[in-house]
Amino acid sequence: MILCIDIGNTHLYGGLYRQETLLVQFRYPSSNSMTSDQLGVFLKMVLRENDLDPQEVKQIAICSVVPALNYTIRAAFLKYFTLDPFFLTYDKITSLNIDYAHPEEIGTDRLSNVLAASHLFPDENIIAIDFGTATTFDALDRRRTYLGGMIMPGLSIAMKALSENTAKLSPVNIVKPQIVIGQNTTTSIQSGLYYSHLGAAREIINRIADSFTDKPPIIVGTGGFAHLFEDEHLFTTLIPELVLTGLYLSVKTSEI
Question: Which residues are catalytic?
């Protein structure tokens, strides 16, 4: 079995694969105060609670955008699984041509997304959109060349900016609003967050899509907030586990 983990700014998002089947998924807060013991015990508990034997885990694949946690994560796997994890980096992906001025700056979660998308949709132009702490857009052409993308504040960051920089606006639950025009402060914020994000996403998709002159792109949605936009006709397909799929492929030699 292969254990795959995306270390994000808000959560660790993980999943366990047996061959190509995703058996279980989980999340854990990615706090800088997290210890290797806390994580190791949690991971073993998750597997056992799902009737899976931790000793059957043979490989671990990780992408991380939080370098400060990498030592703790590695220590957890060395101690509790006696395995040295594979950390995805741009130079370990040989199946993609990376056309980017400084490829070492690309978030490895973004690279994992496009690696998975290129495998799932061969010979297609692709835009992968990840609605996470940040919202990212990544473009890949049908010749498997990574072209770059865009990054903008995610929904939670936008909400935090409002609450921390205004005197009377409090944090709200991030949901798809029932009405466009909010009738109190909470619903006004929710509507503003949602529709500003939706409008920006549509504009960015259209702009990137215009750069593909040979064939319209496949639009792949993923990330924790992507489900909010599932009915807005933004995506060709929604694949919540896209980053895990890319990590799984990254340790399969035939796919990288």
Answer: 109
| Cα–Cα distance for residue pair 158/134, rounded to 1 Å | 9
Q: For 58-112, what is each residue's pLDDT tens digit?
A: 999 999 999 999 999 999 999 999 999 999 999 999 899 999 999 999 999 999 9
| The two structure tokens encoding residue 191 | 């509507």
Query: What pTM value is reported for the model?
Result: 0.94
Whether the Cβ atoms of residue 8 and residue 133 lie closer than 8 Å to each other: yes
The CA distance from 6 to 113, in Å, is 11
Q: Please give the Cα distance from 211 to 228 (Å, whole number).
A: 27
The DSSP symbol for 163 reads: H
Residue type, 172: V
Return the structure tokens found at 199.
Answer: 């409008």
- Mind listing the pLDDT tens digit for each residue in 193-244? 999 999 999 999 999 999 999 999 999 999 999 999 999 999 999 999 999 9
Question: Is the distance from CB of 128 to CB of 137 less than 8 angstroms?
Answer: yes
Contact 62, 247 (CB under 8 A): yes
